[in-house]
Amino acid sequence: MKNYLFHKDQKNEYLKHLNEYGFCVITDIIDETTCNERINEIWEHPALLGNNNINRNNPDTWTEESGWNTDNVGFLDINGGHSETELEYYWKIRFNPDLVNVFKTVYNENVFLMTDRVGIMRPTKNVIINGIKVDKPEWSTRKSWLHLDSNPWEPSEKIKLQGLLTLTEQTETSGGFCCVPGFNKRINEWANNNKNTHTGGIFYFDKKSDEYNKIQKITAPARSLLIWDDKLAHCNYPNTGDKFRMIDYISYERISDYNPDLIKNLRKIGLDSKLLKSDSKFFEILTNTNKSLIDFDNYNKLISSEREIDGYRLYKQGCELECSGDVDGAIKIYQKAFKMCPILEDI
Which CATH class, in words, describes the domain spanning 5-283? Predict the structure, then answer.
């Protein structure tokens, strides 16, 4: 496999590598200040890790008891009751024209933004707990989950991208993206030689599959955009080092692919924006070009009356209750919210 690191202006080169091997890395896609501020936002904002119990400088607090809520592969979702629209650098990254242009170049058409999650892997070596340097193998994420986010027996005719932005350097020990380079080119051959066991959603390769012997770790500098074809077998590998791995998952859809998931995504952004104050950073960032990426003028008009907006605000409170475990309390709030804002019945 040839070098997979490219500059944003090397369009022919990264397109060729993407086609041949199923992935490529575009370096220096965002500036250092934006990257650092995004890391600060993840640590400090209450929508993510900023719940007042977690301290980035105190490993004693990087625990589930303190509210650390990544899953077993390192995904971090927005906390219940909060929204991506409350964030600033989340959007500055996703509206970055250099980053957007990579997807537009691959798709050869305009795109819509899909909101996506954060990826965090805690260090598992030489962690200072109660003043003592220890290893934390229990913080390690899942191993060996090679998969496709599509059906290998019904591969898409057009390339469909997935992506991530490295907020920290992705090394051999940091944990990170790994894949079977070139699987995208032989997916049909593989499918013909294997029994169709796809049951919907993500397809996981059998642990005895020979593809596991072909996995390669893909290292990359911080501030790099890594994109891959959804026909590429991939997963992430656990953090076995002494530094954090932080990424933003990034995805856009073709403007011609107006599918139900995309509509749901754009509708949520429009509704969430109704709960913001007029001087919110979100609106400050929302240029006409950026509005077009989320079809804002269309989906911001779904609700307008104070009753509807109050109903949606009540709905978000119900989401927070549900995430905290109070399902009965959440249901009561949802019932009131649906009466005030009938469009919620379709969410």
Answer: mainly beta
